[in-house]
Structure formats: C-alpha cells, structure tokens
Amino acid sequence: MTDITVVGAGGEYMESVVVVAWHKKKGESVKAGELVVTVETAKAATEIEAPVSGILSDIRAQIGEEVAIGTVLGTLSEDGADTAAPAVSAAQTAPPAAPPAAVPAEAYVAAAGGERINASPLARRVAASRGIDLAGLVASSPSGRIKLRDVDAVVAVPAERPVAGTTASASVSAGVSLTRRGSGEGTPFVFLHGFGADSFSWQPLLATLGVEVPAVLVDLPGHGRSPAMDGAGSLEGLAFAVARALAGAGIEQCHLVGHSLGGAVAIALAEAGRLAPLSLTLIAPAGLGPDIDGDFISGFCRATRAESLKPWLLRLFADPTIVTPGYVQAALNGRGDALRQAQAALAGRIFPDGTQAVEMRCALRRVAVPQKIIWGEGDRIIPMRHALGTGPQAGIHLLPNVGHMPHVEAAATVARLVLQNARSAG
Questions:
Q1: Closest residue by Cα to residue 196 from 265, 262, 256, 98
Q2: Coil, helix or strand at residue 36
Q3: 133-424, which class in CATH?
C-alpha cells in the first residue's frame, strides 16, 4: 500500500489544504505520474500525481474537505487486493457542485497595515461568500491561521438576517441584541462579554466548542449592536436589561458564562433569580475584589485611533502576536463615538478612580449551582488573586502564560471547562 499525501512546496507556508477534485474513482487503475487529486493551497491549486502505479484503493479526504499537511488523502494498492468490490460514494465521484467562488482582494489583506491575512483557502472562500471580513477574526489554532471553524463561529453582516448555510441568527429583545448560534438541542449557553467588548469576542471559544452547542450571545447595553439604555448604567441595571431580554426571547434556563464585567453581570443575574442558571462559569470576572487596571480603563475609553488603542489591547494578552493590525482595526470599528462615550460613562460608575465599586463575593456564595472560575496567571487587568476569596463552592482554574482573555488565548481549555461545568449540573 502506498499513501497519497501532500506536503509544502516551493517554500510556501501551509498548514492545511482543501481537496478540490479527485481525478480517479475508487477502484480505478492509476499509472505512476498520472494526475490523481487536486488540492488548493492558500495561493494556488496543486496537482498531485500518483507516486507508483496501482489501484486507487481508498479515498480518505472528500471533495471540499480541509485537511492538514501530511494527512493521507488516499491509498494506492499495487495488487488491487483491497478493491475487489469497491463501493463508490457520490461524494467520492461527483465533481464539485460549483467552481470555487472568487475571493475578493479585500479578503486577502487586513484592513490596516496591508498585512496578508493568514487563512486557509476554504476559510477565505466561505468568508467571502458570507460577507465576513477576515481582518476581524481571531484564529482559534495555535499557529494563528484562520480556519473554517473560525468563520463558522461568526454571524455575517448584516447580522439581523440568518446566514445561509449556518444556524446563527441575530435579533433584538427589549433593546438588547441577542445572537443565537448552534444546531444542538437542550439548554442554551448564554455568553456575557467583558467591558468594551461585544459578542464577537467569544468567536475563538465558540469555534472550539463547535456548532452543535446551542449558544446565545448577548451584547451588553452600550456595547456591540446594543445601544446605551436608560437605567442600564449600573451593574444592577445591566443585569436587569439582560434578564428582560432573555425572558423576552423565551429563555428561562441556561448555562451562564461571563467574562470580566460580564462575569459580574452573570453573578448578579444568578443571584437575583430573574432566570434559572444551571451552571455558572466565570472568566476573570469583575466584582471579586477592588483592584483593576485603571489606566487600561481610561486609556481604552479615550482611544479614537488604532495607534492609541493598540497599546491598551496589548495589555489584555500574554501573547502580543494576537494583537494584529486587523484585530486592532476590528476593535476600533466596533466602537463608534456613541458607544465609546457610553462605555466611558459606565466605567465612571462601575470603576470610579480605577477601582471596582461592585462587590459580588457574597452574592456569589449565595448562588447554589456548579461554579467554575477561570483566570489567566498573566492577567494585567484584574489580578487572579481575586479568585481566592470566593469560597469553597467554586472550582478555580489558573492558566499559565495566559492574560485577561483566556477564552481567546486558551480556547480549548476554557471550552473543556465550560462543558465540564455544564455536565456537572446534570
């Protein structure tokens, strides 16, 4: 048996390829040097020839499938012993339904800095067809390459319409933007982002969780697609607005996941009894101590240009390579003057003088559901020692070499802990 594989060529960086076409059917004879399969790399199509003569005894990578470099695409049997009665599936023999869609030039270049975006061919093609700007995506893979799963985790613009071919849709409930995602049944996971962020910040974690996990992504008032709202300028006001929005969307039970400010809102929601959370996962939550990086809060709120915003975004991560020009530009595009001013006003009430004015430790102890607290040991915004004063009911997970955004820097670990916590709720 001889494997048919693809390796990097011509010095081009590749992590994966997409199978474009099989030129032989399973069970057909192949001569050495004859074209067998065509794959698409980040730059061009690559034709792979048979290394030996024989029978195409197995096709392992189907048309349209994205596979890692070095993966066995198929096998050749020199004697054909394994192909006496081959069962050829339609997926193995049918040509592609349509030629690959042309990817606009803007999909290849980040919005700022002119850097070429590191993305797989399939991710580029799907993103272009859905109107998704690759410059704003954060890769879930350690290599930093955007893959199809990263694109699948995004709701395309315009967000008010369901995206063809996906299970994501966005709506507004009681003035709060809610995005539903996932094809799975059962109790949804409700995600509450941190200060100055939006529902898009969960994209790396959602890509890791997979589309089968039912999720509801909340844009807090004054963030993302949710405008500032009267009465939502305090922690209690934020919690009430979110509770009303979830109730209006028919969500009574959920697994709550909150990051930073969203963590404090999640505690307030769970403690107030306005909905029935089955589990509570907090990621670097606010409200568990007085300390916070006040310079970050004020600097972030002041920033109106990419050059002034980037230094503050760098404080969020242990790995500075995450903060690419495209990432900075996407963050800047997501906060116009109205939202920036609303966030500054909110910060003045919740984080006055660079101090956390909200105190949620006692409230957390009154929440009788499975709890996990996840914190990056390298967090420069809120110190991880705040987790130690939460009481014995919460499982604490401290992640090395991770900053204030564990769901971005350690998405796989956070996904495992979120699901583990949900399973413990029975």
A1: 262
A2: strand
A3: alpha beta
Interatomic CA distance for residues 221 and 242, integer angstroms: 8
**Collapsed DSSP state (helix, strand, coil) of residue 426:** coil
Read out DSSP for 132-194? --GGG---SSTT--B-HHHHHTSPPSSTTSPPTTSS-EEEEETTEEEEEE-S--SSPEEEE--
- CATH 2.40.50.100 maps onto the chain at 2-85
pLDDT of residue 7: 66
Q: Residues 88, 19: contact at Cβ < 8 Å?
A: no
Cβ contacts of 228-231, under 8 Å, gap ≥ 24: 228/338, 228/339, 228/342, 228/345, 229/175, 229/176
Can you give the pLDDT at residue 92?
37
Residue 210: left (phi > 0), alpha (psi -120 to 50), or beta? left
Which helix (H) or strand (E) segment holds residue 402: the answer is: none
How far is it, in rounded angstroms, from Cα 400 to Cα 408? Answer: 14
Element (H, E) at 351: none
pLDDT at position 94, please?
A: 35
Residue bearing tokens 């028919």: 250
Confidence at residue 79, expressed as pLDDT on a 0 to 100 scale = 61
The whole-number pLDDT of residue 153 equals 65
Residue ranges, the chain, pLDDT below 50: 9-13, 80-114, 155-167
Calpha distance 43→119 (Å, rounded): 10
| pLDDT of amino acid 143 | 60
Return the bridge partners of 29, or none. Answer: 55
Among 307, 312, 309, 306, residue whose Cα is nearest residue 293:
312
CATH 2.40.37.10 given to domain 2-85: no
pLDDT of residue 106: 30
Are the C-beta atoms of residues 179 and 216 closer than 8 Å to each other? Answer: yes
Residue range(s) of every CATH 3.40.50.1820 domain in the chain: 133-424
